[in-house]
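Q: Here's a chain of 152 amino acids. Please give me its 3D structure as C-alpha cells.
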Amino acid sequence: MSISLTATDAADYEAGAYRAKLIDLETAEGSVVDEKTGQPRPYIRWTFELLEEGYEARTIRGNSSTNFGPQAKARAWAEALLGRKITAGEQVSEDDLSGKECILMVTLEETDRGVFAKVDSVNPIRQSKTKAGANSAEQPTANEPDFDDIPI
C-alpha cells in the first residue's frame, strides 16, 4: 500500500472581522506542562466555518484553556456564541454552541514557520433593534434624534 498526498494552497486570510459559525469543539493535550502536576495541560480547540464570500467552507481554529471562570477566554467565546451572559453554575455543552454564528476577529501571527491566521476574539452577532419589516430610516428610535425639524 502506498501513501498519496495532495498539496493544497494555504488559506490566504487578511486580518479583520469574519462572519463564521462554530462547527466543532474538541479537547486536546497541550504542549505546555502544568507546573504543579508535571502533566500536559488540556485545552479546547474551537473550529469555525467561515461564512464570508470568497471563504465559503474554509475553516479556522482557535484555542482556549479549559478554564470557564468569569474572565476565561472559553467563557467569553461561549457567551458570544450564545449572545448572552452565562450565569454561575450554568453548564454549557458543545450541543448548545454548535452551529451558532458569530463574528471572529482574526489577526495574522508571524512565526518561524510562516504567517498564520489566529482567532483573536469571538464576538456576538449584533441583533437589530428594529422589528422585522420595519423601515428604521423612517422612524427615529428613542436614542436617535429627529433632525427633520431643524431649520437650515
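Q: Can you summarize the key feature?
A: The two ends are 82 Å apart (CA to CA).
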